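User: Can you help me understand a structure? I only have the sequence.
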Amino acid sequence: MKLKIFLTLFFISFFISTAIPQNSSFLEPCYFYNDGSTSHYVLDKNLVHNEYGSNVDLFCTPFKGCIVWIDQNTLLGFTIDPSWNKLVYGNYFGINTKSYGRWGTDEYGWYFPRGITTDGLGNIYVADIENGRIIKLIYANDEVTQPSNSIIGSSYLDRPYDLDVDDRGNQSPTDDIIWVVDRGVGKVFSFKVSGSLWGEGIIERLYNASTHACYNDLSGINSVAIRKIAIGGVGVNSTSNRRLYLLDIKNKKLFLVEADVPENGVAQIYKEISLSSTSLPYDVESDYFGDIWVADRKGNKINKYTWDLNYLTSLTGLNQPTGISSTRRHHLNMAITERWTNTTGNRTYFHGADIKNLHISTGYTSANFSFTMTNWNYLTAKIYKGSTYITTLDNGTNVYSSGPVSLNLYISNPTGTYTLKLRADSYEQTNEEYIVYKSVERNFSFPFRAYITGPSALEYMEIGDYYANVTGGTSSNPIYYQWYIKWDGESSWSPKGTTQKTSQKMYDRRNFTLKVCVTRGNEYAEDTHHVLYNPLISKPLTYIDIPDQFSISQNYPNPFNPVTTIHMELPEDIEVSLIAYNILGQEVGIIEEGIKKAGRYDISWDASNLPSGIYIVNLKAGTFIKSYKAVLLK
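Assistant: Let's start by predicting it. Here is the structure, written out as tokens:
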């Protein structure tokens, strides 16, 4: 993992005192943490002059740094200056800064060192551009030293610009892999820490199978980062499915490539994106949670992406940033290298999760909340109505990574204004407090809606009760109703009642439609309800006791045209058949059949499809059989 800068003074106080949770709403747009008011720079010209004298022109062109958290008492910072050919370092818990390095072309000399990385276990690797090699350093007992036989890759490298260490998912440095981008020969190399090439060793070309694009010129690749394996993962890569991020300053591209075994020097591109044509991309880094950061020196900003290169957010207002790094063996912050001035230089931030692009869509009883999280977090999502708690959508126990989030809400009869309260907590401490959090509140309401409830079919002369129900909306004004009715075959609506309830009798043997128009302040809604005329509806009459015998009464009216009512009584639950026959004994219609409960029934028979004449109505219920004549006159 590549780590590139110094930590802010606040970071010291974080480890030696209890941190107070900070609402990241007052921070910069990317919601990094400094101290909530002004930026603290660990290294700037004023500090260096105090340490080394005002004649020292340190950090003419600062490029890289790295930070290593060892334990509660050891926080190491390393920053390199290619013009001064020195490394400045120190433990920020009480030890003054020190420097190491000198110009030279011999084994222990440096000539424009640019890249630096560490394994977090005391081994530091520096890309020495003009000498064409990687130099291994060791930090121990508060001192940086260079062991013998510390030169890596001198037989292969020409102008190594950047490097990163792949710890292969473990904490043992013996099998680490060092990835190096060399702009002099336009290749990406991988070395064992012993100095020999790893596996195939060299990436010379990139190929995108989905677009069939082939990149043969890699001389624009100026930065490399190892992909983190997962949120909270142990290492920065795994022993399989190894992937690299490669930044191309010349073509303004960012690549995610498969780097396990490049065949014939060709690495497969998993995904690629184009950067702004006006940008000057200087560095790429993958943080502890797998998100990707790109320093844009010309744009004075750092852009953040998901692991698969979907844009998340930007940290703007920087001073020509050249480097970005995460903290080795600690996930709390990212470190940034900027242009060197008397009061600016190297700083770090806690980066919490921002909640961006919040969109709320509502139906009559449901709502969807979609937004983008810019960092790993524990998300709490609750719904309130005024000060009254309604429900919890997420209780803060689920881990969310960067990227899109979608939450759903259902309320059966919503009214008034509701409030969504989101809180994204980042970086849980042992005392279960959070250093950085982002909270968002957003009011929302449901559409004003009116809907009719009541029977959808009535038999002749039956009365149906219908109600206008109202949900949604936010107005507190009185509700006004206006009902209308339209019978089938009619072209216009007839007014009918102004209360919430209306009743309608099926006095005409036709279907009809009810409509209600509802207003409340400036809110308006309407609904329609179609009601069918159904002569075959049968239902028990209201009765006190069950009949003591079977019976069927003469239909009424008789003669009839074309509907008549037949009354029957059943003393027990039984299967019945009520069938009509013509005078020739031919069945012409089934009036009612099936199992009926004990009771009294009025059954409607619609004979509109039959010609005038005499018909026999026959009831059979178990062993009970009875018939009578019915006369249809049209």
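Now, to help you interpret it: DSSP finds two helices and 51 strands in the chain. The CA atoms of residues 462 and 506 lie 5 Å apart. Let me know which part you'd like to focus on.
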